[in-house]
Amino acid sequence: MRQRLNSVPRVQIDEITSALVPDQLGIWRAPSKQATPYPEEGHSIYFEIEDRSFWFRHRNDCIAAVMRRHPPEGPLVDIGGGNGFVCRRLLDEGFDAILLEPGDVGARNASVKRKIPQVICATLEDSGIRPASLPAASLFDVLEHFEDDRGFLARIRDLLAPGGLLYVTVPAHQALWSAADVDAQHARRYNERQLRELIAPDFEMRYFTYFFGPLVLPIFVARTIPHRLGARGNSSVRAANEHGVGTRLMAPHGIAVRAMSAMLRPEVGRLAGGGRLSFGASCLFVARKRG
């Protein structure tokens, strides 16, 4: 693990944009606010889940393992960072990170509850981030929300400095599409070939892996098949149960969660050693800006 840095950020928000002003909580805001492709109520639902969820813990472990192998050469802006669950981990790992979240609920949770020192509440367009000013950016389960994903990546490319790094996670395999994707307002799920083709005009793929391999079959059985059969249910209850914070069987320390966590744990060791996984319910990649 990298040595932890002082909690005082090394790069200030006003060094990369002059379009924002801080509010009374210290959250930097844009004068105007565009619509976002993520439901605002999702932040409230998932804030109650994230800290206890085996899924969110494992995703953080995988992201941290890969970023230690492929570290950014400067501060990172976590775009669409939600409640700050990933950003908090990156800061604790010693990375210099700024959170950008257009949703007011997520931005407040990140700033007040997760103690993220620098939070921007604005869309990417309203943030006014200067072209070629970012050493690195991240999109952790964000890209799949955009119909025009190629155009969104092109906008991020313009903000990255020459050789800047982009870190991305997305849900994998359209065959796993379910009500959970509909609830989250996903536009699609991806595979490796699609992602390589998608980023090719603007980025060079430096590293790619799947992860959450042990979840592919459970997702297909518990989510995809019921969705195809027309089953419906309460989205917040479904999310709690699937993340291991709902029923007694799926309690944070219940037998099902312990078994799933044990099956997932080797993935972190594989990624920490520089390996790649060829199968999984999510994709994780690192790309470098071309030119």
The low-confidence parts are 1-8
CATH domain class: Alpha Beta
Number of domains: 1
Over all CA atoms, what is the radius of gyration?
18 Å
Q: What is the CATH architecture assignment? A: 3-Layer(aba) Sandwich
Count of individual helical segments: 10
Structural class: alpha/beta
Structural write-up:
The chain has 291 residues and is of the alpha/beta class. The chain has a single domain, classed as Rossmann fold. The protein is 37% helix and 18% strand. The chain has ten helices and nine strands. Strands 1-2-5-4-3-6-7-9-8 form a nine-stranded mixed beta sheet, with helices on both faces. Helix 5 (149-159) links the parallel strand 6 (134-140) and strand 7. Helix 2 packs across helix 3 (85-93). The model is unreliable at 1-8 (pLDDT under 50).
Q: Care to give the gist of this entry?
A:
The chain is built from 10 helices and 9 strands. The chain has 291 residues and is α/β, with parallel strands linked by helices.
Search tags:
alpha/beta, single chain, 37% helix, 9-stranded mixed sheet, disordered N terminus, 291 residues, globular, Rossmann fold, 10 helices
Chart the SSEs and their pairings.
Elements: E1 21-22, E2 28-29, H1 41-50, H2 54-69, E3 76-79, H3 85-93, E4 97-100, H4 104-113, E5 119-121, E6 134-140, H5 149-159, E7 160-171, H6 179-183, H7 192-199, E8 203-211, H8 216-228, H9 235-242, H10 255-272, E9 282-289
Parallel strand pairs: 2-5, 3-4, 3-6, 4-5, 6-7
Antiparallel strand pairs: 1-2, 7-9, 8-9
Helix pairs in contact: 2-3, 2-10
